[in-house]
Amino acid sequence: MSTYPLHNILFLDIETVPQYSEYEHVPPEWKELWTKKAEIILRNREDDTVESIYNRAGIYAEFGKIVCITCGIIQGTGNEKRLLLKSFSGENEQILLYEFSEMIRKWSGNEPKYLCAHNGKEFDFPFMCRRMIISGMTIPAILNSSGKKPWEINHLDTMELWKFGDFKNYTSLNLLATALGVPTPKDDIDGSMVWEVYWKEKNLERIVTYCQKDVVTVAQVFLRMMGEAAVKTGNIDIKA
Fold it and tell me: What is the CATH number of the domain that holds 150?
């Protein structure tokens, strides 16, 4: 059974995009900075250019922005567990970050709480912290790992848990879910398509749905790894 209090874990996922729809719309000073960044990415990639890989800018906090944060909490026990989802999304990143921050501050309270994401320690958690600083916001204590000792940071990462001390390999959520018999969330789009769905299709709702599916999968994978029963499909609720 889980060694972590399931009711005190906030499962989450973020979706990010480049700050501009096309490379040609990037301001001159930022084009210069992106070119320097892209030179590192382009090593040994003869068929790509600074312009053609601009769609990857969204994975870097300096060049990207968050368009959706979905959170999930587990309520109940055993086979009657429920997973409650809440999404913060929109074109105004500062507003969604503020709303998420207010929620997470109230939720974290005084008792020990945990944040859980897949590859969260390398991507989701630091990306949110960096974008909050850029937006001039104070980082919620539970999210901020700066200056803390390892045992003071209540961040869980399903990818790290799966490594069991082996730090050589990256395991995608899709692969891990499939290996564990958990339904995969990749039945519509994947992370590489988010920028196009946002900037070209203008379909933020599709991205929100994808983000919610990822959070459900992260929660189900975590439960599977902890020896807990999965949340039934009918017990997953989305809060407006």
Answer: 3.30.420.10
What's the pTM value of the predicted model, to 2 decimals? 0.94
Structural domain includes residue 217: yes
Domain-located, residue 207: yes
Is the Cβ–Cβ distance between 203 and 188 less than 8 Å? no
What's the CA gap between 214 and 173, in Å, rounded? 8
> Closest by alpha carbon to 128, among 146, 110, 112, 111?
146
What is the span of the domain harbouring residue 89?
6-19+63-232
- Summarised one tens digit per residue, pLDDT across range 114-128 is 999 999 999 999 999
Q: How many distinct structural domains can be found in the chain?
A: 1
Percent of the chain that is helix, strand, coil (3-state, to 5)? 45, 15, 40
Q: Indicate if the pLDDT at residue 8 is higher than 70.
A: yes
- Band of pLDDT at residue 166, cut at 50, 70 and 90: confident
53 within 8 A of 192, measured Cβ to Cβ: no
